[in-house]
From TrEMBL:
The keyword Membrane applies. It is a multi-pass membrane protein. PANTHER family: TRANSMEMBRANE PROTEIN 256. It is found in: Membrane. Its main location: membrane. Belongs to the UPF0382 family. The keyword Transmembrane applies. Coiled coil: none annotated. Keywords: Membrane, Transmembrane, Transmembrane helix. This is DUF423 domain-containing protein. Pfam families: DUF423 (PF04241). It comes from Polaribacter haliotis. One of its GO terms (cellular component) is plasma membrane.
Length: 127
C-alpha cells in the first residue's frame, strides 16, 4: 500500500471539487469561455489523477522503487500541470498573467505521461 498515493489522491480529489465549484460559481462571471475551459481542464486532470492515485495507493507497494516513481510522477505532474493552469487563469483575470507558469504546464504534462509510461512498464514486466 502507498500512503502517499492515498493521501494525495484524497487531497487532490477534495481540492478538485472545491476548485471546480470555485470556477463554476465565482470565476464564471470573470472569465471568458477559453479561460473557463482552461480552468476546467486543470480540474478534470486533477480529478482523474486523484482517482488514479487512490486506486494505485491500494495496489502499489511503497517499498518497491518503480511503484514510488509512479506515485511521485503523478503527484508532481498534477501539481505542476493543474496548479500552473489555475495560476495562469486566475492571474489573467487581473491582467497580471504570471507568464513564467506557461512552461511549467507542459512539464507537468510530461510528469503525468511519465507516470503512465512507468505504470505501463510495470505491467509489461509483471506479465
Amino acid at each position: 500500500m502507498s500512503q502517499q498515493g492515498l493521501l494525495f489522491g484524497a487531497f487532490f480529489g477534495c481540492l478538485a471539487i472545491i476548485l471546480g465549484a470555485f470556477g463554476a460559481h465565482l470565476l464564471k462571471k470573470k472569465l471568458n469561455i477559453e479561460q473557463l475551459q482552461s480552468f476546467e481542464t486543470g480540474v478534470k486532470y486533477q480529478m482523474y489523477h486523484a482517482i488514479v492515485l487512490l486506486i494505485l495507493g491500494f495496489q502499489l507497494n511503497s517499498e518497491i522503487p518503480i511503484d514510488r516513481y509512479i506515485i511521485h510522477a503523478f503527484i508532481i505532474g498534477v501539481f505542476l500541470f493543474s496548479f500552473s493552469i489555475y495560476g495562469l487563469v486566475i492571474s489573467s483575470v487581473n491582467n497580471k498573467k504570471l507568464r513564467f507558469l506557461g512552461p511549467i504546464t507542459p512539464l507537468g504534462g510530461l510528469f503525468l505521461v511519465a507516470g503512465w509510461a512507468l505504470l505501463f512498464y510495470k505491467f509489461v514486466i509483471l506479465f
